[in-house]
Backbone:
């Protein structure tokens, strides 16, 4: 039933990347990483009470610990002016080490660790099944579908509010929208989604899915709605392609999907219009040419009709004064002659009337 | 009942350091008030406390004798430009529309009426042609005008602005000053955190000189004196007289 594996991967990809958009926009991307470790403490504490490795209470404990992690990290940032990275680093290791100590002292004989409870493996999801009515489905698929629908329902109900609190936290407060509740509501969904997804596909793929598709989409979009839609499209595309490649190459599905996520991000990084590297380099290059052209005209203006004009503005030596290569200088001289801004008299450059006009129109001369 | 804005015995402290200490002042309707003082005087904190974004240690902030929670639909806010992420995926029009969210309320969709108001506000600050642009494509002055348009659609009775003149072009400066006049004519209150001592007399009709405590508060012509300014900036500031109307530090 390989189609079931793909379906688990797809629902997970959609659920995680939707909440991921807001993590990226709030610049909290690394939170997933922290949560992936600190939830162990939630599991340990829940286990302490229920003493059953298969109890759903363990998932609730994990989710609550995820929210508590966010609370602690933001508390540190606010109260003590610790920077974000440091706050995440300290909270994440502290909570994780507490859980390791508890396991070592209390539950030495129990097989209690993240892989046991949560580190899912896509290939094996189909063996753990649940029957709902006449349908017999992988448990992960059912869980992830519920989480996805919950995410979509909350997102469409509170779209306006979530957008506002993500863009301008203070204004949300001024307008009476209680940003604290919205924020921790969102973080609860992030934590719940992450915990459910860890169980289905494993921690590393969850982090890749939460962050990868949103940052890829943000290269192309200018509105939040389009960002969400494109994120969903990219998440689906990455998952399907990664799945097919893993079948073709006979490698792990999670690993292949994560690799495809990386590659589609890199493609966007290099080739995206406007925000991509190539487009940026082109803009930078043309800006440099433009500024050089202005500098050249300015130089002519400053030195024409002065005593040293014959030296400063001679076609043969002007490039040495400006510190530019002769080829580059000649290109600019050609351009300025063609536009009719300069004229040559005895190989000395001077501004024409049109050139003088251009000079006056320059922003910093007005 | 007295209409207007009133701060009573307001103290705000971070840790053991008082940022605002026993602040009292009144702003009657139809007043454009500047809040002036050195860095660390508590100007932004004062606005944040008024807006309920910071919990004060003591005292009250009252709008028409009512606390903020009952009045938030009547209060407009223009934050410092740097307080939001200008790379956020949203358009100019969308940002202005956010100013309507308070009137729209929880979980309800934005109405056509709100869209019309947002377009009208954009026209008023001369930003209509930019409505569909992404917010990262704007200059500093244009960003400020978008924030002003967003505050306008809040249809508030009292506006708080945090350094609206910071780094803006002449056109934006004129637009803001014109807006002040218009809001004053509508009998509204505008409270502005301000930096430039030279323009206080041109922009505002009342001023509060603040340095942790209130040094003076009232009509510009009465309280904006060299003595009070020197007291606010504590040290023996050298006051250079540019003209009779202008004081510079």
Residues:
């Amino acid at each position: 039933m390989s189609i079931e594996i793909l379906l688990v991967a797809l629902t997970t990809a959609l659920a995680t990347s939707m909440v991921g958009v807001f993590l990226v926009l709030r610049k909290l991307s690394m939170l997933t990483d922290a949560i992936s470790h600190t939830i162990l403490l939630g599991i340990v504490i829940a286990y302490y009470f229920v003493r059953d490795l298969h109890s759903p209470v363990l998932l609730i404990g994990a989710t609550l610990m995820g929210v508590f992690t966010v609370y602690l990290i933001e508390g540190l940032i606010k109260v003590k002016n610790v920077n974000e990275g440091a706050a995440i680093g300290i909270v994440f290791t502290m909570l994780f080490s507490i859980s390791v100590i508890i396991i070592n002292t209390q539950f030495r004989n129990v097989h209690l660790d993240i892989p046991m409870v949560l580190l899912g493996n896509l290939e094996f999801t189909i063996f753990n099944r649940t029957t709902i009515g006449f349908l017999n489905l992988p448990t992960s698929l059912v869980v992830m579908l519920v989480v996805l629908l919950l995410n979509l329902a909350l997102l469409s109900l509170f779209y306006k509010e979530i957008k506002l609190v993500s863009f301008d936290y203070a204004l949300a407060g001024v307008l009476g929208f209680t940003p604290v509740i919205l924020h921790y509501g969102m973080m609860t969904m992030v934590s719940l989604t992450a915990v459910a997804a860890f169980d289905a596909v494993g921690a590393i793929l969850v982090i890749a899915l939460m962050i990868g598709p949103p940052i890829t989409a943000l290269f192309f979009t200018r509105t939040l709605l389009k960002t969400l839609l494109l994120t969903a499209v990219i998440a689906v595309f990455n998952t399907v392609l990664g799945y097919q490649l893993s079948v073709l190459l006979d490698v792990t599905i999670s690993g292949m999907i994560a690799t495809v996520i990386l590659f589609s991000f890199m493609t966007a990084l290099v080739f995206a219009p406007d925000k991509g590297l190539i487009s940026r380099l082109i803009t930078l290059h043309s800006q440099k040419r433009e500024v050089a052209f202005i500098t050249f005209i300015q130089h002519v203006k400053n030195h024409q009709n002065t005593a040293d004009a014959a030296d400063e503005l001679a076609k043969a030596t002007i490039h040495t004064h400006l510190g530019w290569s002769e080829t580059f200088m000649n290109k600019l001289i050609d351009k300025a002659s063609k536009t009719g801004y300069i004229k040559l008299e005895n190989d000395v450059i001077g501004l024409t009337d049109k050139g003088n006009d251009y000079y006056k129109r320059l922003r910093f001369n007005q | 009942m007295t209409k207007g804005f009133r701060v009573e015995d307001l103290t705000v402290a971070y840790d053991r350091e008082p940022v605002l200490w026993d602040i009292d002042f009144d702003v009657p309707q139809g007043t454009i008030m500047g809040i002036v003082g050195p860095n660390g005087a508590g100007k932004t904190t004062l606005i944040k406390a008024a807006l309920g974004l910071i919990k004060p240690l003591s005292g009250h902030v009252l709008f028409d004798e009512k606390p903020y929670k009952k009045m938030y639909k009547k209060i407009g806010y223009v934050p410092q430009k740097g307080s939001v992420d200008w790379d956020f995926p949203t358009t100019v029009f969308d940002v202005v529309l956010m100013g309507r969210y308070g009137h729209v309320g929880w979980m309800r969709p934005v109405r056509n009426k709100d869209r019309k108001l947002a377009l009208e506000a954009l026209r008023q600050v001369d930003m209509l042609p930019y409505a569909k642009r992404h917010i990262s494509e704007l200059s500093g002055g244009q960003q400020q005008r978008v924030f002003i348009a967003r505050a306008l659609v809040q249809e508030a009775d009292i506006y708080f602005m945090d350094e609206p003149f910071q780094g803006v072009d002449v056109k934006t400066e004129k637009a803001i000053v014109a807006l002040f006049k218009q809001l004053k004519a509508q009998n509204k209150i505008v409270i502005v955190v301000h930096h430039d001592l030279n323009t206080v007399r041109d922009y505002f009709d009342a001023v509060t000189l603040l340095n942790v405590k209130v040094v003076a508060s009232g009509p510009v012509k009465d309280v904006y004196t060299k003595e009070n300014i020197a007291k606010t900036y504590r040290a023996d500031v050298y006051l250079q007289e540019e003209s009779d109307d202008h004081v510079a530090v």
